[in-house]
Write a structure and sequence with these properties.
Length: about 160
């Protein structure tokens, strides 16, 4: 087969058909496109397996470091995690953790002094279908919806009590 016969596709960080892909706990999806303004936009989504940040965050930071360069700080919602240290050592580098009880369903990752990336955090107990929908919406280039609203919109309604 000649080179001209081989379909050439540029490398992508996101699968073409995220709605058909299997997404499981521990998955992170990133858009990370260069923009002049990040207002109202999420740069990705993360579905941790547990609420133990010392177990979950190092893997995320390692992956992000490969794409973004060294991560210096991570801002987290204190109410979403069990036990928050003020720093973690990941791949031999100190990463400072800033906690705030804001309940905004995001993680704010800082590269360098002031380059920030906002990731939707899908709660660990979310169903696979709801997580896939939330993550796909978060990484959509035209998304302007806040993280909490995405999670509400993609969480199935509980079945009504039919006995009474």
């Amino acid at each position: 087969m000649a080179d001209s016969d081989t379909p050439h596709r540029p490398p992508r960080l996101l699968p073409d058909a995220i709605h058909q892909e299997t997404v499981g706990p521990g998955t992170a999806l990133l858009r990370l496109e260069t923009t002049r303004s990040r207002e109202g936009r999420l740069d990705g989504a993360w579905w941790p397996r547990t609420r133990d940040i010392e177990t979950e965050l190092p893997t995320l930071i390692s992956v992000l470091t490969r794409h973004l360069g060294p991560i210096t700080r991570v801002g987290v919602d204190a109410s979403a995690w069990n036990g928050l240290p003020t720093r973690l050592v990941v791949d031999g580098r100190v990463v400072h953790l800033d906690s705030d009880p804001v309940g905004d369903d995001t993680v704010l990752v800082t590269r360098g002094d002031n380059d920030h990336f906002a990731l939707l955090v899908v709660p660990p107990d979310t169903t696979e279908d709801a997580a896939r929908q939330a993550m796909a919406r978060a990484v959509s280039a035209d998304n302007i919806t806040e993280a909490a609203q995405i999670l509400v919109a993609t969480t199935p309604e509980p079945e009504a009590d039919r006995d009474g």
